[in-house]
Amino acid sequence: MSQISINLLPKKQKKQRFRMAFIIPIIAVLVLLTATVFVLQWSKGEELERIDSQLSQAQQEKALLEQQNQRNESVGGIDQLESAIQFMESYPIPTVEVLNHFTELLPERGFFESFQYTDTGLITLTVQFDMSREAAFYLHQLEQSEKVTQASLQSIVTEELDSAGSDEVLPRYVAQYTVMLNQQAIREGEVIE
C-alpha cells in the first residue's frame, strides 16, 4: 500500500500571500481615504473658524459705522438747526406788522407820507403832523419802543396848506426819522404789539 502525503503548508502560504497582496492595498487605500477625509474636515473647520472670525469682525465694523452714522446724523441735525436759525435771523421782518406798530405810536393827527424799509432793519419815515411838538412826541415814542434800538429825527420842515373854503393858511410839519429795528425783539415777540 502506498501512502499519499498531502503537503498543505505551501498551498496555504500561497493563499495567505494572495490574500495579503489583496488586503494590504485595500487597507492602504482605506487609511489614505480616512487621512484625506480627516485633513479635509480639519481644513474645513479651520476655514469655518476663519470665516466666523471675519464675520465677527465685519459685525463689529458695522456696529462702529452705525454709531458714527448716528453721530454724523446728530451733528448733521445740529448743522441743519443752526442753518435754520441763521436763516430765521436773516429773514426779513414782516413789513405790515412793523408799519402797524409805528402807526400805533403816532399821535391822533399824525400821517405817514413815506415809509422805506431795508432788510438790515433800517427804516426811514416821513410823517406829517399838525403841530411841531407832535414830531418830538413821536420821536420819544419811537425811542421808548422795545422794537427799536435807535431812533433819530433827521429833519422837520414846515409846509403851508390852504384850508378848503377859506383864505386861512394852515401850517403842517413834515418830519423825517431814521429808525433801527430791534429785529431780535420783533422775532421773539412774533407779532409786534
TrEMBL record:
Entries under InterPro entries matching the protein: Extracell_DNA_Util/SecSys_Comp (IPR052534)
List the coiled-coil residues: 48-75
| Keywords, ordered alphabetically | Coiled coil, Membrane, Transmembrane, Transmembrane helix
| Spans traversing the lipid bilayer | 21-42
Q: Which PANTHER family match?
A: DNA UTILIZATION PROTEIN HOFN
Protein name, as recorded: Fimbrial assembly protein
